[in-house]
Design goal:
mainly alpha; 7 helices
């Protein structure tokens, strides 16, 4: 379950077994007082805290993907890198020809992992202003509003008055919409 994507038919069958355990007794059907989705909600939200098997499987696969990003020197990461992305990194790797089921499973949840990833800004030389997730916000880490003639490869380092100096506040005010929340005080992160 941690390294392989459970096929839809399998997790639905297991979920049906759980459901029948709770809603059937000795051949009799009982009343469904709450939907299965409702039962899977946390207790704080009125559910019973049951696990949604599909979501749990996706979370475990995303955790494996995160391990490939963080622990690039582990044995499994080195094997997968040698076979599937020898010249790149996990986040930009292609599925490849004839991939293993493990590789297909882990890469199937890469979009889920990427939703929560963001850069921490140090020098800002590698981070693209309009394409990369770098803003320290709750949900969307990218600027929401880009000027029509924006240079898509503009680097965050060019937003500073000198390489390790303070932010160019005039440039920030000219480039970003106030709702983007780009403020020099939010920039003390490390790349």
């Amino acid at each position: 379950m941690e390294c392989f994507k459970i096929p839809d038919g399998v997790w639905k069958s297991i979920q049906a077994l759980f459901s029948s355990f709770w809603w059937h007794q000795r051949g009799e059907k009982r009343v469904h007082w709450k939907s299965w989705e409702g039962l899977c909600k946390p207790k704080k939200l009125g559910g019973l805290g049951f696990r949604n098997l599909n979501a749990f499987n996706q979370a475990l696969l995303a955790k494996q993907a995160w391990r490939l990003v963080l622990s690039s020197h582990s044995l499994s990461a080195r094997i997968l890198k040698a076979k599937y992305y020898p010249d790149g990194d996990f986040l930009t790797a292609e599925l490849g020809a004839r991939p293993s089921y493990t590789w297909r499973s882990i890469t199937s949840n890469r979009p889920l992992l990427c939703k929560g990833l963001g850069w921490q800004i140090g020098s800002g030389e590698q981070v693209r202003v309009w394409r990369d997730a770098w803003l320290p916000r709750e949900t969307n880490f990218r600027p929401d509003f880009s000027p029509p003639a924006a240079d898509l490869d503009l680097r965050v380092s060019s937003l500073r008055s000198s390489p390790s100096g303070p932010w160019d506040t005039d440039l920030l005010q000219n480039l970003f919409h106030p709702l983007d929340g780009v403020h020099p005080k939010n920039s003390s992160r490390v790349e």
